[in-house]
Write a structure and sequence with these properties.
The complex is a heterodimer. Chain A contains no helices and eleven strands. In chain A, the strands form two sheets. In chain A, strands 2, 4, 5, 6, 9, 10 and 11 form a seven-stranded mixed beta sheet that branches. In chain A, strands 1-3-8-7 form a four-stranded antiparallel beta sheet, with no helix packed on it. Chain A is globular, with a radius of gyration of 13 Å. The termini of chain A are far apart. In chain A, 33% of the residues are buried. Chain B is mostly beta strands. Chain B has no helices and eleven strands. In chain B, strand 7 and strand 8 form a beta hairpin. Chain B is globular and about 40 Å long. Classes of the chains: A mainly beta, B mainly beta. Chains A and B meet through strand 5, strand 9 and strand 10 of A and strand 4, strand 5, strand 9 and strand 10 of B.
Chain lengths: 115, 112
């Protein structure tokens, strides 16, 4: 299956600062990547669909000015949490669909803690 | 509104037995459904995909069924092992780009 990496694996930041999370496709070019968020004991919730070279599509209720997504290349999508608050503390996971299949492969996730 | 339910939050079974997990959905007609395994603090790992025109799919000790009339998928692990202990997620495709909607998961514990 496809290999997806995320960096950092965990980050702690102060309230009001911005944090950037990287998602890389290591073995093929991904025109579409997805960003999910998972709170403790909850299911994964889709935040946005990231398309290479165009604006991301955000799910209802997700603030696009707060969660900035950039997909400038076929192997890298970034999620920037701007002016982070403690309620943004969560597990952020990206994924891609392997070329020619319907299977979605996930990165290892990034644990964000906002103090 | 669309809803996905995995009816057991937790399932405890004895090693060697078959674990059966259930995923039900409403107000929805997905073209395919996927099952994932998630370990604590890790991203989901893909296990199996089953399409609406497939009744059953197998992979080693895993078996998935898909009943579009009942709007239900069953996930079986035969000859379960303690290493199978994890949370198992059901996910349905939604949208033209392959967006997934996930159930809350069932935490499986296999006791030796």
């Amino acid at each position: 299956g496809a290999v997806v990496s995320q960096h950092p694996s965990w980050v702690i930041c102060k309230s009001g600062t911005s944090v950037k999370i990287e998602c890389r496709s290591l073995d093929f070019q991904a025109t579409t990547m997805f960003w999910y968020r998972q709170f403790p004991k909850q299911s994964l919730m889709l935040m946005a669909t990231s398309n290479e070279g165009s604006k991301a599509t955000y799910e209802q209720g997700v603030e696009k000015d707060k969660f900035l997504i950039n997909h400038a290349s076929l192997t890298l999508s970034t999620l920037t949490v701007t002016s982070a608050h403690p309620e943004d503390s969560s597990f952020y996971i990206c994924s891609e669909i392997a070329g020619g299949t319907d299977t979605q492969y996930f990165g290892p996730g990034t644990r964000l803690t906002v103090l | 509104s669309q809803k996905i339910e995995q009816n057991s939050e937790a399932l405890n079974i004895q090693e060697g037995k078959t674990a059966t997990l259930t995923c039900n959905y409403t107000n929805y007609s997905p073209a395919y459904l996927q099952w994932y395994r998630q370990d604590p603090g890790r991203g989901p790992v893909f296990l199996l995909l089953i399409r609406e025109n497939e009744k059953e799919k197998r992979k080693e000790r895993l078996k998935v069924t898909f009943d579009t009339t009942l709007k239900q998928s069953l996930f079986h692990i035969t000859a379960s092992q303690p290493a199978d202990s994890a949370t198992y997620l059901c996910a349905l495709v939604h949208g033209s780009q392959g967006n997934l909607i996930f159930g809350k998961g069932t935490k499986l514990s296999v006791k030796p």
